[in-house]
Amino acid sequence: MSETPPNTLQYRFDGPEDAPVLILGPSLGTTWHMWDRQVPELTNQWRVFRFDLPGHGGAPAHPAGSVADLTARLLTTLESLGVQRFGYAGCALGGAVGIELALRHPERLASLTLIAASPRFGTADEFRRRGVIVRTNGLDPIARSAPERWFTGGFAAAQPAITEWAVQMVRTTDPGCYIAACEALASFDVRAELGSVGVPTLVLVGSEDQVTGPAEARTLVAGIPDARLAVVPGASHLVPVEQPAAVTDLLVRHFSTAWQPAFESATGQIALPAGAAAQPVPAAAPAQPVPVAEIAPAAVPQQPQGRPDPYDAGIKVRREVLGDAHVDRVLAQTDAFSGDFQELVTRYAWGEVWDRPGLDRRTRSCITLTALVAGGHLEELAFHTRAALRNGLTPAEIKEVLLQAAVYCGVPAANRAFRVAQQVVREETTPQE
Q: For residues 149 and 75, what is the distance between their CA atoms, to the nearest angstrom?
């Protein structure tokens, strides 16, 4: 067990101190206990290191808003313990950390398993809307729906104690840390970089996973050189809990046969012992699928001369604030007549003003809502109310903004604004069944 400064993670070790380290990374909403059924067998060969995400499992609530931040905290924790090289298996968000390690810190990684993972988890809009629901309603709606996302129906019905454990695990998570983790998943997209993963990789997925299922697993296998695929029958998203024996067996087989030798810092090469040869996957392991695509090397971007064009920053901020669905809809309707205007809005409103560091996005949303009430721009008020929720304002805070606007912009304008905002708040904060 550990005490946890803000830049590190809560962790525990199991297994012999002189064994190689194997790290197990958790899924969003879970704790290190999701790996309890794997630990007894894994500790026969490895010193198993498990960690909790911020605000999960009683860990201090220091939110981490990106996968890169979580990865940096993990490495800081390991460095404080003298752990330099390790194998890594991660589930869902824990799998995203594994991909980040393989891309940014390959010298630390001996072998990798990605479970229920994806190079991009759904859409940014889905995770940001989940954050809005948690900010408004707390974690109870997410907790109650966790079993149907994580387990097959038959397993949930047959294992009521595990189902209730799952609900309580989510319910006791810190809401702010959960929202930050949703933001981390919303912004995670490494589809173009998979060809750079150079460590032995097993991609493991439940056959019934409706969250990050076999299609996402095959995308990883197609993109990561020499990756292997294992599909576990009769399992959904939290496959280590639902099919623990199968997952344990696959982890033992993979890490026993695909532990890459250490990186030579002087040459940048991997040093193989004399006579060493690549270890084949045992016959019982899933066969390697035929690659369906070849990843071409990324083009080297030209360095801009002088001041960077704010368009790229603008489209990024515009999508983060208004959501991909809204921006895609607007851009799809753009033609030769309106294209210059949309470019102007993206470049100057979003790339110049919204991207300035002087005010945070919550404050900018407050100002924008007030200005739209004053101008009577109800259509824009609707999608900026949605944006304000994504930027972290609660319905109660939006109400206060509109009350303030009623005093200074007029009651009739505020009356119309309340009707528009009320409808948007209902739509965005009502949990989906």
A: 30
Average pLDDT over residues 353-362: 91
Quickly state the pLDDT bin for 300 (edges 50, 70, 90): very low
- Cβ(275)–Cβ(282) under 8 Å? no
pTM score of the predicted model: 0.76
Q: What average pLDDT score do residues 116-139 get?
A: 93
184, 70 contact by CB (below 8 A): yes
**What beta strand segments (E) does 285-414 contain?**
none
294 phi and psi angles, rounded to 5 deg: -110, 130
17: DSSP letter = T
User: Which H or E element spans position 103?
Assistant: helix 93-104
Region 97-108: mean pLDDT is: 97
DSSP 53-98: -TTSTT-------SHHHHHHHHHHHHHHTT---EEEEEETHHHHHH
Two structure tokens written together for 29:
């909403």
Residue 86 neighbours by CB under 8 Å, 6+ apart: 20, 21, 22, 23, 49, 78, 108, 109, 110
